[in-house]
Amino acid sequence: MLELKNIYKYYNPGTVNEMCLFKDFNLTVKDGEFLSVVGSNGSGKTSMLNIICGSIPIESGNIVLDGKDITNAKEFRRNEKIGRVYQNPSLGTCPSMTILENMSLADNKGKRFGLGRGVNKQRIEYYRELLRPLNLGLEDKMHVKVGSLSGGQRQAMALLMSTMTPIEFLILDEHTAALDPKTAEIIMELTDKIVKEKKLTTIMVTHNLRYAVEYGNRLLMMHQGESVMDCAGEKKAGLNIDDILEKFNEISIECGN
Amino acid sequence: MDFFITIIEQGLIYGILALGVYITYKILDFPDLTTDGSFPLGAAVTAALISRGVNPYMTLPIAFAAGALAGVCTGLIHVKGRVRDLLSGIIMMTALWTINLRIAGTSNVPLFSKETIFKNSFLEKLLPEAVQPYGTLIVIVILAAVTKLILDFYMKSKSGFLLRAVGDNEKLVTALARDQGNVKILGLAIANGLVALSGCIFCQEERVFEISMGTGAVVIGLASVIIGTSLFRNMTFMKATTAVVIGSVLYKACTAVAMRNFEPQDMKLITAALFLIVLLISMERRKKVKIDA
Questions:
Q1: What would the DSSP string read from start to end of A74-104?
Q2: Which of A8, A146, A161, B32 fits a disulfide with B24 by CB distance 3.0 to 4.6 angstroms?
């Protein structure tokens, strides 16, 4: 279970550009929840993910993961339990290393990075098995550098790599936004499959309202650092795009545009 | 003949330096000027040890360790102090000038009458009469080859993978629950260890320590790396480390040929001019490839 308690976050504190994003923000994500987060630009979606992962500091408040306070834990420490896929496909892989080397790196997460062989030959077949269901032909290109793959192929790899080792939390930061509609669809289906198979607690930020409605079992709409809509369970299942659009327009009108 | 042997000898010695620069420049993407200080650091440590009668072969690991320590300092300044990469190197390079003088005692330490890794009673017994004149070359070839092979082995290890990843995409290293700062420090340590090792061998080959011998070391290293990696770019069977060492020999050959027509004091100008030429040529190649594609 992940809890954000009384989070305060300011940007540019102490300057004329000081801006308060989160003011006493609270959120609880239960184990096994697949939370889709929607909202306009600047509503604090990505900032929320960055706060959970420890990429940006907060002014006050607590972040509790499985009962343990991780507010002051470094980003790389938190990643022991968290996997993250970014909007930019090149952030999840190493372009100058081969597919095999990338998979081996990800496979070793949580273990020692010592002087043992980087690639375990006995695992190659396992990596192929993981890549085969993608239907992208990656299993036959094990020795090709990831830098020469397309964005969609890289994003598929990034998703596989971040969920390869046992993690508890999956953070998806608009991970289909940079892909064409067809590839985005493939990646989204793959995401859903992995989340269900591994029973991962997931937070997905997306601008695609259809994905937000179709996938996941809870939906959160954010606006100016606050949650303006939060439905789970049956209420979420009965939701359709029009309901969300209506709410979206409502907050936009409030803003005066 | 002697001319060629000297080129190969010096080229291979600088090849070890180039391997160090390869790690910082190509793998870590870190313009590390510590090189100009850690190269004479290796030499200063060696001169100090040999003058005190230490076994010359012991100078190799000790010089490497000294260089690695310098690299760790640069890394700490950059990672923990959040100083920009270029400035961290400049700070250490400047500090090392004094440190090198302190270690060596004076700005010039001759080692003519001392035993070195090239001239000692053990080696004289081991090598047959006929190959004695090539003793220095043989020792250098072995040292360069062993260094390269160890580095190759390291690059294929898990720790080596992490090092390659951190220059490529530090976010991924963080995602693997590793502190990317520590990986960078490790890389700088290995790189500067190699540079100091090169300085250690160079000072024994020249049989003298000179405080200013490091000036321009980073340029020589960069030129070697760029020649090696751009010349053999399309030869996938060749490891980058091999290419870098060959690049260093080629660069040494170029300077040696050029120097035949100039005075010794023109050395640095020629070094710089050749580096510029190498840069311009390698850029030209890149442009052509783009048009073809």
A1: -HHHHTTTEEEE-SSGGGSS-TTSBHHHHHH
A2: B32
Which of B158, B168, B171 is facing A113, going by the closest CB pair? B158
State pLDDT tens for residues B3-25: 899 999 999 999 999 999 999 99
Look at residue B292 and tell me whether its pLDDT is greater than 50: no
- Distances from the Cα of A227 to the Cα of A38, A44, B181, B218, B269, angstroms: 10, 10, 36, 55, 65
Structure tokens at A185: 């669809």
Q: In this complex, do A95 and B168 lie within 8 Å of one another by their Cβ atoms?
A: yes
Q: Give SS3 for B77.
A: helix
Residue with the two structure tokens 């022991």? A80
Using an 8 Å CB-CB cutoff, list residues of chain A that contact chain B. 74-77, 79-80, 83-84, 86, 90-97, 101, 104-106, 108-110, 112-119, 162
What's A111-130 look like in SS3? CCCCCCECCCHHHHHHHHHH
Strand-pairing partners, residue B100, are: none
Which strand (E) or helix (H) includes residue A64? strand A60-65
CA–CA distance, B93 with B89 (Å, rounded to integer): 6
Answer yes or no: do B165 and A75 touch at CB < 8 A.
no
Of all residues in chain B, the percent with pLDDT exceeding 70 is 97
pLDDT exceeds cutoff 60 at B293:
no
Measured CA to CA, the distance from residue A27 to residue A37 in angstroms comes to: 12
Considering A187-191, B94-98, B109-113, the range whose residues carry the highest mean pLDDT is B94-98
Q: What share of chain B is helix, strand, coil (3-state, %, to 5)?
A: 80, 0, 20
B26 contact residues in A (CB cutoff 8 A): none
Which residues 6+ apart lie within 8 Å of A40 measured at CB?
A: A223, A248, A251, A252
Please name the residues in contact with A215: beta carbons below 8 A apart, sequence gap of 6 or more.
A34, A36, A188, A191, A192, A204
Q: How far is CA A95 from the centre of its chain?
A: 20
Q: At B293, which amino acid appears?
A: A
C-beta of residue B134 within 8 angstroms of C-beta of residue B1: no
Residue whose C-alpha is closest to residue A93's, from B108, B41, B147, B164: B164
Helix (H) or strand (E) holding B135: helix B135-155
CA distance A94 to A97: 6
Least confident of A59-63, B1-5, B134-138, B169-173: B1-5
Q: Classify residue A199 by its DSSP letter.
A: T
- Mutual angle of helices B240-259 and B2-21, in 10-degree steps: 130
Q: Are A221 and A244 in contact (CB under 8 A)?
A: yes
State the Cα–Cα distance between residues A163 and A84, nearest whole angstrom: 9
Residues of B in contact with A84 (CB under 8 A): 175
